[in-house]
Predict the structure.
Amino acid sequence: MTTMFNLCPHAVPPNPACPAPRPRCVAGLGAILTLLILAVPVLPARAMEVTDALGRQITVATPVRRIVALNSDALEILRTLKAQDRVAGVYAEIVREPFFWGRLIDRPRTGGWRRPNLEAIADLDPDVVLTYSRNPGEDFDRKMAALGIPVLRLDFYKLATLETEVREIGQLLGEEEAARAFCDWHAGHLALIRDRVTALSNHPAVYIESYSDLATVGPKSGAHEMCLMAGGRNIAAETVLPYPKVTPEWVVAQNPEIIVKAAAWGNGYQAMDAAFFNELRDAIMARPVWPTIPAVQTGRVHVMDSAIWTGPRALIGVAWMARWFYPERFADVDPNAWHADYLERFQNIAYQGVWVSDPVSRVKP
Amino acid sequence: MTTGDAIALAYRRRTNVRLLFILACGLIMVAMAIVSLCVGASGMSMRDVVAALFADSGRAHGIVWMLRLPRIVLAILVGFGLGMAGAVFQAILRNPLASPYTLGVGSGAGFGAVTVIIFVGGMHRWAVAGGAFACAMFSAGVILAVARMRQASTETMILGGIAQMFLFSSLTSLSLMTAGCICFAGVIGFIGLVAPHIRRMIIGGDHRYLLPASGLVGAVVVLLADTLGRTLWSPQVLPIGIVTSFIGVPFFFYLLLKQKKAYW
């Protein structure tokens, strides 16, 4: 990311609490402004170039005061960067998690995360729209560009690029400090897991199932990355598609030692107990012929909430996986404690909720 | 030999051809079921499969009896049902475009299933099937009521059916949107429309033969599509609707172009 124009050395952070430039800057500011008006009258006063997840250079006028977040991952990162006051619009599905998002659900809604309402977005006159690299389609950028609204596509759900993306958006918003705090915390915890996993051999075979039955994850998916990071060997690592559908027979034939399933509607933050996750786990263990799979025989079948699956909190999911893959080596790691630390420090909300299924107490012969 | 005898002889010959065709379809279906039983991701040999068929327990037994056989039986039933339903619709409405899908009955069933899954909650199989059946009956009733009240032509019925199909598809999308649920409802729309035509081109319009033959070829196509779908690109599964179209549409075009005169 490069700053194209920087009017005074301590550029005013786009903070609503301090909107006006400081007096001692004014003289220099006036002089430079005059020069600028004479030299390049058509360029915006200030702008930044940001590299998005597709490798494109997106120019965004600064300071950024009004942001539309088209998905929960982007919104969570904005809260991490203490930029929640600048959120001008949110995706429609936010209503499902009122406890987690608090007053943010009162912000104007701009339609579903896949199919946003362009008119609603235009109406909010945002400085930038944040969305995933693949959703909505490319057409969205063209239509927004016609309205003069830049679309910044950042994923925030892949472990490999999360920190880079957070740093970029942090710089764009002038919240470098908050971005650095999060990245340091994230990198530190990830390094702890990585260091231990590298020293281990005999990576267990893992079958990962995403929200719908028999939908597994292949290379290029966020969950495959999480499994590798936690030291697992994804049995679907050779598939071509990132999200292939497989037959139950194939899973049986692969003899996975551990099964990890993501639950779409667990709503972990509001959950009082693990009943929802346990039901899913029991249903998997009861599938025809699956009791012959080693993972089912040893009771190593686990369900986790989508909130700690791929997304800004994928690290928490990785911590759980590492515990499930190597119970002895990671006995001292408490993912709930990491999670509590994250929610209290970076999301500024109290820790609560249930995020994974209970261990199987009764192993059937 | 009188003209009457010649006609009777020709009729007997024609009947024999039809019976032979039905017999051949039945044999192909059985052969394909056996092949389908022997292929799968676990790489069991034919000998293993036979042993598993007669075993009492164990993994191989489970794979053959609980994973492969139910799938084969389901494919046969679905294909047979769709083929027969298409033939019956086309006969009753005297219209070559009629099928459970063009009349909106399939979309009605889909809507019923989705509604039960979302609003009644749970995925109990009988409840879902019941909801689908009720809505399918309702949409079939609407088509017949429209036909009776307005003395409608068959074209009106088909147009009404297509309108109904769009309505139910929209309602389904709407329900899915409000619930935000991702549904992988497989629609094999093509079989009901095309299976009766394939049979009619080959064995003519006598429904004593057309109905069972439509069912049998529907079963063969769906079974073949499902077997290919789960083995061609293993471990990835290809949706059956896509495979049926890839197998059936080229064959249908071939028959359509080969046909010298109008067959309907």
Remarks:
- Confidence is low (pLDDT under 50) at residues 1-23 of chain A.
- The two ends of chain A are 58 Å apart (CA to CA).
- The interface with chain B takes residues 93, 96, 112, 211-212, 214, 236, 239-241, 244-250, 252-253, 264, 288-289, 292 of chain A (CB under 8 Å).
